[in-house]
């Protein structure tokens, strides 16, 4: 067995390669409360490309104009770069869905259409109007054929495969492959599978399909077994796993990208398969997805949780100081958890700042550097040392959200004590004409008062439906990140804000959401009924 933290990569060449199909932007975005706009999706896709995933499922184009545009931009952007990943789009087995998906992925060098259809008895009865088995097979075959009319690479998924009658599942899969599917994906849609049983099913399907198509798996985590099931599938011949960063997705989520990738890497000796993922990019990807979705990473989350490489007890600390392999099976730097050598602070200049951003992989244009640097100086006045996480938070907050921000906070003051009702006075500036409005409001708390003042100053009636605070960095002068969900009319928008002051971070987040509401062009349609 190779050393756990130093896998023997010379052996890689003989090992089969498992394709990483990332569905953060499609299934991941279906998690309750997540709503990524086009720009955010493109930003995540660019990071996924740096991470080295094989396939990016950008969305479900028929569901909204916004999803269509996002997939198309991803296809035309990272999808046409050198060594570009495949760009996939989801579609039901219906002509309209497939045509829309085809149009969205068309610019990519490697476009894929992913068609799906429910096959289990309960789905056939309750969702497909008692469709017969023959009707399902015909629809699947028709869907695959239509998709092949547009692209050479077509993936077929029998939804709720693990609760589908065994023989019928094999029949549908074979029919889809005969019709031209290049990948058959076996979804454990409701997270019902158990590893040994799922592994046996995948082994059987691999045997039936042979070299005609790749077998893929898509495991949900309802029983906390998504990674274990996916691993067992790989051991039984699956050559693609569908994953989401931080395991986000419907209900309990999907197989977590970082967990399956690091399991395959760390236990190559047992599983015998590799991926192309550049694992040092894992941490940054995890943070970016957490920032943009507003889904915090739990402290004890495997691989990317903040405790994943922290040792608390004296015995553990002693062991790690003597030799970190006593309690570490992965190297922190292999997942991108290395600390910065250069310390940035209030005396640092723009040059050092830009070099640090470059080291972190950010390539900002002039205007972006200018905004980020101003924000950095502002922060350096309040904080002694600026860490990598601080810089990433500044870039996420200042640059990623900078598109067409109509309003910005020009000043904020709060007052109130134990006997006094909290009051906030907020100065809001319009960026198009520079005009400023100052409003003062009271509320149940400082944050409530600040949001009320912003509402009055902008005249936008946003209702705060969810509020999440997290420490972006550590220490007493930590940067706090606030993510909010806001409803404006029938739109639901996410806003983010970062500051050392929580009320200010909240006000920034709330205003960011209101700004987005002024420029939302298309979002996932709430009631198309098309979401799988
Ligand atoms: O969980 C599921 O079945 C899906 C399919 C669309 C692959 O997400
Ligand atoms: Zn799914």
How would you describe this protein?
The protein starts with 18 loop residues before the first strand and ends in a 13-residue tail after the last helix. It has an 8-stranded parallel β-barrel, surrounded by 9 helices. Strands 9-10-11 form a 3-stranded antiparallel sheet. The protein has a 3-stranded antiparallel sheet with strand order 12-13-14. The protein folds into 3 domains: about 280 residues, TIM Barrel; about 90 residues, no CATH class; about 120 residues, 2-Layer Sandwich (Double Stranded RNA Binding Domain). The chain is α/β, with parallel strands linked by helices. It is about 40% helix and about 20% strand. The longest helix is centred in the last third of the chain and has 18 residues. The chain binds 3-methyl-2-oxobutanoic acid (KIV) and zinc ion. The site of zinc ion has 6 residues, from loops.
Q: What are the key terms here?
A:
14 strands, 532 residues, Double Stranded RNA Binding Domain, single chain, alpha/beta, binds 3-methyl-2-oxobutanoic acid, 3-stranded antiparallel beta sheet, disordered N terminus, disordered C terminus, 8-stranded parallel barrel, binds zinc ion, TIM Barrel
How many E strands?
14
When the domains are counted, the total is 3
CATH architectural group of the largest domain: Alpha-Beta Barrel
**What ions, cofactors and ligands are bound?**
3-methyl-2-oxobutanoic acid, zinc ion
- CATH topology annotation of the largest domain: TIM Barrel
Distance between the amino and carboxyl termini: 42 Å
Could you give the order of strands across the largest sheet? 1-2-3-4-5-6-7-8
- How helical, in percent, are the residues? 25-40%
What is the CATH top level name of the largest domain?
Alpha Beta
Q: Name the overall outline.
A: globular
Q: How large, in whole angstroms, is the Cα Rg?
A: 24 Å
Uncertain runs are 1-12, 521-531
């Amino acid at each position: 067995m190779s050393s756990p933290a130093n896998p023997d990569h010379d052996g890689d060449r003989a090992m089969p390669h498992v394709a990483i199909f990332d569905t953060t932007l499609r299934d991941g975005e279906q998690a309750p409360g997540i709503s990524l706009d086009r720009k955010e999706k493109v930003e995540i896709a660019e990071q996924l490309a740096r991470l080295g995933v094989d396939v990016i499922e950008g969305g479900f184009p028929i569901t909204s104009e916004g999803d269509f545009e996002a997939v198309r931009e991803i296809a035309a952007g990272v999808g046409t770069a050198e060594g570009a990943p495949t760009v996939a789009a989801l579609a039901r087995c219906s002509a309209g869905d497939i045509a829309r998906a085809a149009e969205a992925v068309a610019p990519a060098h490697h476009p894929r259409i992913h068609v799906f259809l429910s096959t289990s008895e309960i789905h056939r009865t309750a969702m497909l109007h008692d469709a017969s088995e023959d009707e399902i097979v015909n629809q699947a075959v028709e869907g695959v054929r239509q998709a092949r009319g547009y692209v050479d690479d077509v993936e077929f998924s029998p939804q709720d495969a693990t609760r589908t009658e065994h023989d019928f599942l094999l029949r549908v899969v074979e029919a889809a492959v005969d019709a031209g599917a290049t990948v058959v994906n076996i979804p454990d849609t409701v997270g019902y599978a158990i590893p040994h049983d799922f592994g046996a099913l995948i082994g059987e399907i691999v045997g039936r399909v042979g070299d005609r198509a790749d077998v893929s798996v898509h495991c949900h985590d309802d029983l906390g077994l998504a990674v274990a099931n996916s691993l067992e599938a790989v051991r039984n011949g699956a050559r693609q796993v569908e994953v989401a960063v931080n395991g986000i997705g419907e209900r309990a989520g999907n197989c977590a990208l970082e967990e399956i990738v690091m399991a395959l890497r760390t236990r190559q000796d047992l599983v015998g398969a590799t991926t192309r993922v550049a694992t040092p990019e894992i941490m940054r990807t995890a943070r970016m997805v957490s920032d943009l979705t507003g889904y915090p990473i739990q402290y004890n989350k495997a691989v990317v949780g903040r405790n994943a490489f922290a040792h608390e007890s004296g015995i553990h600390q002693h062991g790690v100081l003597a030799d970190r392999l006593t309690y570490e099976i992965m190297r922190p730097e292999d997942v991108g958890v290395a600390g910065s050598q250069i310390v940035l602070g209030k005396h640092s200049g723009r040059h050092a700042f830009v070099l640090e951003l470059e080291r972190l992989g950010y390539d900002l244009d002039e205007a972006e550097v200018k905004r980020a640097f101003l924000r950095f100086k502002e922060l350096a006045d309040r904080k002694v040392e600026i860490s990598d996480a601080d810089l990433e938070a500044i870039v996420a907050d200042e640059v990623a959200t900078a598109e067409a921000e109509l309003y910005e906070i020009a000043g904020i003051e709060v007052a109130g004590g134990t006997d006094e009702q909290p009051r906030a006075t907020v100065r809001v500036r319009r960026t198009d004409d520079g005009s400023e409005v100052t409003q003062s409001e009271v509320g149940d708390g400082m944050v409530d008062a600040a949001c009320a003042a912003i509402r009055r100053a902008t005249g936008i009636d946003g209702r705060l439906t969810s509020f999440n605070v997290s420490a972006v960095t550590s220490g007493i002068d930590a940067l706090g990140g606030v993510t909010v969900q806001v409803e404006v009319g029938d739109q639901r928008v996410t806003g983010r804000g970062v500051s050392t002051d929580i009320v200010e971070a909240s006000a920034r987040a709330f205003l960011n959401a209101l700004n987005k509401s002024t420029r939302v062009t298309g979002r996932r349609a709430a009631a198309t009924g098309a979401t799988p």
